[in-house]
Amino acid sequence: MAQQGVLLDQDQFCCSVCLDLLKEPVTIPCGHSYCRSCIEDCWDKDVLKGVYSCPQCRETFTPRPNLRKNNMLAEMVEKLRKTGLQAAPPPALCCAGPGDVACDVCTGTRKRKALMSCLPCLASYCETHLLSHYESPALKKHKLVKATAQLQEKICSHHDKLLEVYCRTDQQCICYQCVMDEHKGHDTVSAAAERTEKQRQLEMSQQKVQQRFQEREKELKELQQAVKSLKRSALAAVKDSDKIFTELIRSIERRRSEVKELILAQEKAQVSQAEGLLEQLKQEIAELRKRSTELEQLSHTEDHIHFLQVHRVLLPPAGDWSTLQSLAFFVQLEEEAFITCSCTSCDGSNKYPPVKAGSYLIQHFNDSYRRKRALSI
Question: Which residues form the RING-type domain (predicted)?
Fold first, then answer.
């Protein structure tokens, strides 16, 4: 606590121009104290004006006051220097840094950070130099705004006066002199009134944007939900189609095996029957060849009695066509060799030739798959 008090006293003995401990302190007529060199530099710039003012309270003096050393203040500053704390810099927050607005009154390389800007004065002030605008009756009426570096943008470029009026006709800020000159007869209002109106419009626009934003967010969520649902449906459809095609392939493979076994069984049965018929035909051919030889020999005999006796025995009986009938039966059997469909959707009455069995089964299962898909949808 003691150290904080010392630092506070040290700050009170700093020059408001150079922000360092007073060097050869002098007190001007208004009561404020400065380094002799600092106040002389400030007043040297006002020589042409002939009017000299205090950097803090802005009180003017004419003629230029004579500066005398403040001995009591000098002794106190000297004691403060002997404590070894004179090198302690002012608080960092008081110094203007990058991006800050520097005080226009402070001199030297260490200018303080400006807190407020005065529009009539077109200057920015730190906490120390701003006191004059709170204490001086003439400066209390000045309009102060938060410290800004764009003070020139608030001044009319034609009349060098403060922009305080808004011209609705030309959609621009103007000064009171412009109202009487270039913008005479235009629809003009004070900048504050136009700000109030624009603020109201801005709030309405913000409400509309917020409403539109909420609607779009709702639509976005609905669309995202629809996409998720679509993906789930597509995945389920893929799984169902894979299952159906897997079952169909298995069924086709099973039917193919059954058809193959049936064809081979029919082939075996018919080949066995055909082989029996071939054997019978060979025997009949052998008998017919033998009988043909005997008939040939009989045709050359001169014994009439022997011819007549043997002729009756060698000729085959009328209507003996067993071999031809067997052949016709085999052909008929081949034509009647059908494949019977045994699927669950048929009653077993559908029969198809072996040659057409493969194409029929493919067509049949395609039709069955289409019926299942129609029922699932």
Answer: 15-58
pLDDT score, position 217:
93
Which residue type sits at 33? S
% of the chain surpassing 90 pLDDT: 17
Burial class of residue 23 in the structure, from the number of CB atoms within 10 Å of its CB (0-12 exposed, 13-18 middle, 19+ buried): middle
Indicate whether 298 pLDDT > 90. no
Question: pTM surpassing 0.70?
Answer: no
Q: C-alpha angle 324/329/333, rounded to 5°?
A: 150
Of 39-43, 98-102, 103-107, 235-239, the one with minimum mean pLDDT is: 98-102
Structure-token match 């004419």, residue found:
62
Comparing CA positions, the residue from 117, 112, 111 lying closest to residue 142 is 117
| Whole-number pLDDT of residue 344 | 52
68-98 residue pLDDT tens: 888 888 888 888 777 654 444 444 446 776 7
Q: Is 238 helix (H, G, I), strand (E, B) or coil?
A: helix
**Could you tell me the two tokens for 236?**
């389920």
**244-294 pLDDT tens trace:** 999 999 999 999 899 899 889 888 888 888 888 888 889 988 988 888 888
Cβ partners under 8 Å of residue 345, min gap 6: 368
Distance CA 148, CA 154 (A): 11
pLDDT of 351 higher than 60: no
Residue 146's alpha-carbon distances to 83, 131, 237, 366, in angstroms, are 38, 15, 67, 83
Amino acid of residue 119: L
**Euclidean distance between CA atoms 83 and 268, whole angstroms:** 128
DSSP-based three-state secondary structure for 239 = helix
Q: Which residues contact 354 (CB under 8 A, 6 or more apart)?
A: 259, 262, 263, 266, 337, 338, 339
Provide the 8-state DSSP code for 114: P
Surface-to-core class of residue 280, CB atoms within 10 Å of its CB (0-12 exposed, 13-18 middle, 19+ buried): middle
